[in-house]
Amino acid sequence: MTDRRPGGAARRASRTRTTKETSVEVHLDLDGTGLAEAHCGLPFFDHMLEQLGRHAGFDLTVHAHGDLHVDAHHTVEDVGIVFGQCLAEALGDKVGIRRFASSLVPLDEALVEVALDLSGRPYLAFDVAFAPETPGLGSPPFDPQLTEEFWRAVVTSGALTLHVSRRAGKNTHHVVEACFKAVARALHDAVRREGSTLPSTKGTL
Length: 205
Known about the structure:
Elements (H helix, E strand, L loop, with lengths): L3 E2 L2 E2 L2 E7 L3 E8 L6 E4 L3 H14 L2 E8 L6 H19 L8 E8 L2 E8 L5 E5 L18 H13 L2 E8 L3 H19 L15
Parallel strand pairs: 5-6, 9-10
Antiparallel strand pairs: 1-2, 3-4, 4-6, 7-8, 8-10
């Protein structure tokens, strides 16, 4: 449900999702201070989610329990679904938001470019390839190919257009982390309130 602050609508949302494969709980405040905490049973993925909250300036809490004995796919995808739902709910009617944003983020030799539109239309273009034999990160391992699956779930449930491109990078950790930081910085700018009208000629987003 969405909370409210004195003097106007707060841009907060909390969601839970429970299936036979996972149980996920997410709390999101778009106007937070970058306080982020994640516990999903995948230390590297937890680190990425905390980077997402920190660099977007969101207060973000994620708790997930999934069938990691099968693999990490269900957990990562379902966290993306719930985060996207929270993002859409917290944005509300989107009146006054900037809507469009882009970022170019380096991490040592890695360089990732992101452009996004809080459009109400889900679309993902993810030009960051990892070879199938690329080792997982952390223990239990996070398969780097799940980076795309996470953002696909966010895009689909959050109804946004997102383009992510690797401009440079060899170290898998650096590339994945640059992806999360670049999306975070773009979200930070896109959700910012800078007016009092809906940024659309159609009258809806």
